[in-house]
Design goal:
Helices cover 80% and strands 0% of the residues. It has helices at residues 2-60, 65-80, 84-106, 109-113, 115-150, 154-157, 174-181.
Length: 188
């Protein structure tokens, strides 16, 4: 009788530990998903601002069609990205394209003074800051999840509980970083 009670207590204890580990993984997974959602909201917000920005600049610099095409293509890539890695790559391209667009705008004093352009530029800049903050929060949540999944004793049961793989970080590759950091050359 005592042996049965001890065995039952050990089984309940083990089940409690596994449930606790599972709940911790679920919490970390949900935090990462929530923070990814924050990034997608900000990426969509920026993508929604871009057509207005492009149209405003087009009115002043109609002959800059190559810049407009790059911005439009990069915007489509961001809105169609299905994973953090794809979104990060597309985001790097869009940041570079926007940098080119703003460089073009620098050559048009009337455009730089246009209130609509200034408001759109401020909104895009604000959104860039929000994307950066969301990226840091997401990467922190991913780091927390990945670490939790690999740490003892969770690592012993994570695979059995359906948490087999690390989550992807939202980071720009070295090639995109170099493209973003390089000065934009605008020729007329």
């Amino acid at each position: 009788m005592v042996t049965t009670i001890i065995i039952l207590l050990v089984v309940v204890f083990v089940i409690g530990i596994i449930a606790s580990l599972y709940n911790g993984l679920v919490r970390a997974d949900q935090k990462a998903k929530e923070s990814w959602s924050d990034i997608t909201v900000q990426l969509k917000r920026r993508a929604d601002l871009i057509p207005n920005l492009v149209e405003t600049v087009k009115g002043y610099a109609a002959h800059e069609s190559g810049v407009f095409e790059k911005v439009t293509e990069a915007r489509a890539a961001v809105t169609g990205a299905g994973s953090p890695a794809a979104a990060a790559q597309a985001d790097g391209q869009l940041t570079g394209a926007l940098k080119s667009l703003f460089a073009v705008a620098e050559n048009y004093p009337d455009l730089k003074a246009n209130q609509n352009f200034l408001e759109l530029q401020a909104q895009v800049t604000d959104t860039e800051d929000k994307i950066s903050a969301s990226r840091r929060f997401y990467n922190s949540a991913v780091n927390s999840f990945n670490a939790k999944r690999k740490m003892f004793p969770t690592n012993m049961v994570a695979g059995m509980l359906g948490f087999n793989t690390d989550k992807e970080f939202f980071d720009v590759s070295d090639a995109e970083k170099a493209a973003i950091e390089q000065p934009v050359e605008v020729k007329f």
